[in-house]
Amino acid sequence: MNTIRLHDKQFKPFIFQNQINKAIDILAEQMNKELKEEPLPLFLCVLNGAFMFTADLVRKMDFELELSFIKLSSYCGTQSTGEVSEIIGLNASVEGRTVVVIEDIVDTGITIEKLVETLEKQHPKQIKICTLLLKPDQYKKSLHLDYVGLKIPNAFIVGYGLDYNSYGRQLPDIYVIEP
Ligand code: 5GP
After folding, report:
1. CATH among 3.90.1150.10, 3.30.70.3490, 3.40.50.2020, 3.10.450.50 for 16-73+88-152
2. Lower Cβ count inside 10 Å, N or C end of the chain?
3. What span, in angstroms and rounded, lies between the C-alpha atoms of 55 and 50?
4. What is the pTM assigned to this prediction?
């Protein structure tokens, strides 16, 4: 496979489809074991990046679940607390339920931590976090990540849902930026 150009940057092949599929199979096996007793877990796909991962993951779940798609918006609040994250598109009820957050990638963990804090206010039974990718050298939060597909070094990647300024999301493989 060749390097690709998106906007002004060059990217080279990094994680191939078959590796992604294997990682998802392992995650699915673990989740099927651990979540099958939960009554209708609520899976929350964090858009945009997690759309492809979610589509591949949920078709491997062998229990009933509810799937919802959310987006996060950050804005500067009027209070001195500064940035507040708001969840857009969460129509499903969270109270008393097992919620599984599906992320494409966890980097510093700021996004996932804010999302979990916001969801906690709605009193779920428990929140499980599932991310296809993790940059362990960047992740400094104490929040436990329940399901992690692949650990990657600290470099900018695109493909399989992840974009560079809206380009590259549709790529079936993952590419890494060239220095
Ligand atoms: P965090 O809040 O954990 O630092 O960052 C999480 C978000 O940053 C991800 O949901 C994703 O949107 C973006 N992100 C982090 N690393 C990468 C990367 O290597 N490539 C792309 N395309 N987005 C990334």
Report:
1. 3.40.50.2020
2. C
3. 8
4. 0.94
32-50 per-position pLDDT tens digit: 999 999 999 999 999 999 9
Determine which one of 8, 56, 62, 107 is catalytic: 107
The per-residue b/e assignment along 38-59, b for 16 or more CB within 10 angstroms, e otherwise, is beebbbbbbbebbbbbbebbbe
Per the DSSP assignment, residues forming a β-bridge with 176 are 12, 157
CA distances from 86 to 14, 74, 90, 126, 148 (A): 33, 6, 10, 20, 24
What is the 1 CA–ligand 1 centroid distance (Å)? 24
Query: What does the pLDDT look like over 81-125, one tens digit per residue?
Result: 445 568 999 999 999 999 999 999 999 999 999 999 999 999 999
131 CA to centre of ligand 1 in angstroms:
11
